[in-house]
From TrEMBL:
Keywords: Hydrolase, Metal-binding, Nuclease, Nucleus. Residues 5-86 form the DDE Tnp4 domain. It is found in: Nucleus. Pfam families: DDE_Tnp_4. The keyword Nucleus applies. This is ALP1 protein. InterPro entries: HARBI1-like, HARBI1_dom. It comes from Tychaedon coryphoeus (Karoo scrub-robin).
Length: 141
């Protein structure tokens, strides 16, 4: 993209636009084709992430009932499951699709109202615009 970028998290419209949180353009009739494509690609990336977490929870179902472990242990437990999951994926350990039956995709709690405009970072729009240009240069997909 012509300049180094930091990692970003993907957020939805309720999150404030920050240089570390990418969120879609607000959906309205004034969006350009490029902005619509950006929103589409962001949505696709978000679905990949949701699928990855679904597979992680299906393989390590202890993550579905973490309410019985201490809060101090929880980050270590999640990290251990992520590491073991990545090892299994890297070594083509078969994923049993039946594991998904007990793992319904759940909506994580999110803010109900969009973040106030005052929380938005003015420089973050430059990051989003760079990503928008990058997606446009990649063509369809």
């Amino acid at each position: 993209m012509g300049r180094a970028q930091k990692y970003v998290l993907l957020g939805d419209a309720t999150y404030p636009l920050q240089d570390w949180i990418l969120k879609p353009y607000q959906e309205d009739e004034n969006l350009t084709q490029r902005q619509l494509q950006f929103n589409y690609r962001l949505k696709r990336a978000h679905s990949v992430i949701e699928n990855a977490f679904l597979r992680l929870k299906a393989r390590w179902q202890i993550l579905l009932k973490c309410d019985d472990c201490s809060l101090e242990l929880l980050p270590t437990l999640v990290l251990a499951c992520c590491i073991l999951h990545n090892i299994c994926e890297a070594h083509d350990n078969p994923f049993n699709e039946e594991w998904l039956e007990g793992t319904e995709p759940t909506e994580l709690p999110k803010p109900c109202q969009p973040a106030p405009a005052a929380m938005e970072d003015n420089q973050a729009e430059q990051v989003r615009e760079l990503m928008c240009q990058y997606f446009e240069s990649c063509g369809e997909g």
